[in-house]
Amino acid sequence: xxxxxxxxxxxxxxxxxxxxxxxxxxxxxxxTADSSSVPQILSYKVTGTIPHDTAAYTEGFELNGNQLYExxxxxxxxxxSIADTATGKVQKKFPLKDKTxxxxxxxxxxxxxxxxxxxxxxxxxxxxxxxxxxxxxFKWPYEGWGMTNDGKNLYVSVGSSIIYKxxxxxxxxxxxxxxxxxLGTVDNLNELEFVNGFIYVNKWQTTKIxxxxxxxxxxxxxIDCFGLLSQYAPDYTPLxxxxxxxxxxxxxxxQLLYVTGKNWPLIFKLKLD
Length: 273
Prior knowledge:
Layout: H1 7-21, E1 40-41, E2 44-51, E3 58-64, E4 67-72, E5 79-84, E6 90-95, E7 103-109, E8 112-117, E9 122-127, E10 136-139, E11 147-149, E12 154-157, E13 162-166, E14 173-178, E15 180-181, E16 184-185, E17 189-195, E18 198-203, E19 208-213, E20 219-224, H2 228-232, E21 245-251, E22 256-261, E23 266-272
Parallel strand pairs: 1-20
Antiparallel strand pairs: 2-23, 3-4, 4-5, 5-6, 7-8, 8-9, 9-10, 11-12, 12-13, 13-14, 15-16, 17-18, 18-19, 19-20, 21-22, 22-23
């Protein structure tokens, strides 16, 4: 997304997060950085690629059955698409009807699809069987970046080092995770994917995916996707400086991570060693 903070905006966000930390109805994960616990470098193999829609400025990415759901951003061109996992071909596309809305992360939970917006402070709820119109909305006080779920609750990133845990019915914040590594807090957390007690996180404007322990907030591993495009799509020219890695979907059946980026021409299937 187009996420550029001025110092004043960043200070305001820090104040907001600080206030949120004092809520009596939230629980905060451990935040102490363990200097002896350096994140492990996680190696992987590319087991395959499929085409990706280069018109998609990827904000949310999720696998559901044999379909890839993708939420995209940019003003006047935000949409949700459904693509076939075998071919990458987009089968359906649902533009946001309100062109002032900037689409962000998505998550599928209990036959509903949730969609954040960037700075509009609103999120949409859809019936998964009909994404042409929302069935409801909820207010969100911060910026919206990434979203995932653990089968029970939603998790939302806002570009800071905090991941918020939400009740999917009331949308109340019921907990939060402070993400840290051996050096301290880790910010610019973006697209999220929950896998077996860990949250995989794109760190904005980097080639790295962080593996975060959802119980403690500590980064236990990093996946570096540097060089994927130059190796598999050497003729591709990025559309902008923001055409970076952003998009993680988990294939539980085959134990694969599907990863892509904003306006990238390919989706990569990664098998972690």
